[in-house]
Design brief:
Order of helices and strands: HHHHHH
CATH superfamily of the largest domain: Ferritin, core subunit, four-helix bundle
Helix content: 55-70%
Shape: globular
Oligomer: single chain
CATH class of the largest domain: Mainly Alpha
Distance between the termini: 62 Å
CATH topology of the largest domain: Ferritin
Structural class: mainly alpha
Largest sheet: none
CATH architecture of the largest domain: Up-down Bundle
Radius of gyration: 25 Å
Number of strands: 0
């Protein structure tokens, strides 16, 4: 417990010192030690460039997976309409992936390797991905189509948001337009997937 810190008026004095870049005094009963803390050690607010690169990197990673989503149809079957939709999603993702690669080639500041995810998030994503793959491989018929479409609804919605964030934090008008176009395209695909889910027959 703090030793009469607030009653003596020292608390207000020390808070002013902190705001002025001084030291944080940790005073415990029976202990009179202080521990200097550099304000430079506090996390800095990310710049627009960092946010743009982080969102673009996550989007690039997503598109890299999405361009291969139709490969599951080699071993699984779906209705003609849903097969066509999944192939459209894969082809569209491949196109957007090439657009990101081209932007990164023309803009050295665009780093597509800046996912910067903490290890816990990476582990959780890997676990979720394996669970989704397991569900797809073990399901058949309507259940398979639902699992596949549901995964694509999540992917398209997430990609739309990533592209929107990248666009808002882009300084180059052409790059901003490209990200906005990707966002709009993924939004349309998301709506198509949701419509397809709603028209699935009863299980």
């Amino acid at each position: 417990m703090l030793c009469l810190f607030r009653r003596s008026g020292i608390y207000d004095f020390m808070m002013k010192e902190i705001l002025m870049g001084g030291f944080l005094a940790g005073v415990l009963c029976g202990c009179a030690s202080t521990h200097p803390v550099s304000l430079n050690a506090l996390p800095e607010k990310p710049t627009k460039l960092q946010i743009r690169n982080n969102a673009a990197s996550l989007l690039d990673d997503l598109l890299n997976d999405e361009q291969n989503v139709d490969k599951v149809l080699v071993v699984k079957s779906a209705s003609p309409d849903n097969t066509a939709l999944i192939k459209l999603i894969a082809a569209t993702a491949a196109t957007h992936k090439r657009e990101l690669d081209e932007m990164a080639t023309n803009d050295p500041a665009l780093n597509l390797q800046a996912t910067d995810l903490p290890p816990g998030e990476i582990a959780a994503r890997n676990g979720s991905s394996k669970a989704d793959e397991h569900a797809l491989l073990l399901s058949t018929g309507v259940n398979f189509e639902f699992n596949l479409l549901f995964s694509q609804a999540q992917a398209e919605s997430y990609g739309q948001q990533l592209a929107t964030v990248a666009a808002k934090n882009s300084e180059n008008p052409e790059e901003m337009h490209t990200f906005e176009t990707i966002s709009q395209t993924m939004e349309r695909l998301d709506l198509q997937v949701i419509t397809a889910i709603r028209t699935l027959p009863e299980k």
